Amino acid sequence: MRVVRTAEDIITALGPGTPPVILVPTMGALHAGHLDLIRFSKTLGPPVVVSVFVNPSQFNDPADLDRYPRSLHTDATAAQFAGADVIYAPPVEEIYPNGPEATPEGELPDLATKPGLEDRFRPGHFGGVHRVCDRLFELCHPSVAVFGEKDWQQLRLVTHLAAEKHPDLKIIGRPTTREADGLALSSRNRFVPVPDRPRATAVPRAIRAAQAEQDPDAAEAAARAALEAEGLAVEYAAVRDAQTLLRPIETDARVLIAARLSDVRLLDNAPWPAPDNQPR
Ligand code: AMP
């Protein structure tokens, strides 16, 4: 496995005549959730490229960007064991030759601007996600890109971007990998102070509480109550159409949660109500 800095070097590393790659975009600090995406990608056949790029344009809080964990060396080892063929760790100039600000974000769809979810609490975030994914797709020409369902609104945005601008690209979402106690893995979980960590289970508990309700409003109230009972500051606890992220629910639905615990933003979502085979 090779670690490369430019898209041109991906081709050099893989050799001529290689089929279009499978791309797993990440910001590094790889955990078992990322490794599941890589292992799954490896089963698809073509070479797997894992991008590691802490994208400045998607951080709306400079302090969050500053403290974001960076660990390329460990990431490369972990990714290699999970089956990655190439790690693509570009400098900012490769992704944004004219600087992040000068790179247009493109027109964002309603599902990224209207729901009042991430769009409300992280202004500018999806503009940055849209920009970086568009550039990564342009530079790497993947046939498939694999993302986590953990960032459900992002997954919907990227699926929309591919359909609009990269019609030969297939986006695949993978289920969320969790700790034994149900907390969704995240690179930011390490910032939860140890004494506060048990309270983080309020998030998966809130999801289960919502899934147990048959009415969307009752489900939202149940989720919010579960979070507040542990002192988490709720940004949203919402039951929405899984595709539009709005109400009314037209086909399938998700319960989506963002809440802060000790200054760490915890994000999660799941199908709503619970699928029949899932314990409540
Ligand atoms: P990030 O490095 O946080 O930008 O995430 C890179 C990719 O990993 C995104 O597609 C995320 O949705 C996905 N991801 C993050 N956490 C998890 C998780 N716990 N389970 C599965 N995928 C995840």
Secondary structure elements and their pairing?
Elements: E1 2-4, H1 7-14, E2 22-26, H2 32-42, E3 48-52, H3 62-67, H4 72-82, E4 86-88, H5 92-95, H6 110-113, H7 118-121, H8 125-140, E5 144-148, H9 152-165, E6 170-174, H10 202-211, H11 216-229, E7 233-241, E8 253-261, E9 264-272
Parallel strand pairs: 1-4, 2-3, 2-5, 3-4, 5-6
Antiparallel strand pairs: 7-8, 8-9
Count of helical regions: 11
Bound ions, cofactors and other small molecules, one mention each: adenosine monophosphate
Low-confidence stretches: none
Morphology call: globular
Strand content: 15-25%
The pLDDT mean sits at: 95
How many E strands?
9
- What is the first-to-last residue Cα distance? 42 Å
Classification by helices and strands: alpha/beta
Sheet with most strands: strand arrangement: 1-4-3-2-5-6
The sequence of SSEs as H and E is EHEHEHHEHHHHEHEHHEEE
Computed Rg = 19 Å
Helix content: 25-40%
Q: Please give the largest β-sheet.
A: 6 strands, parallel
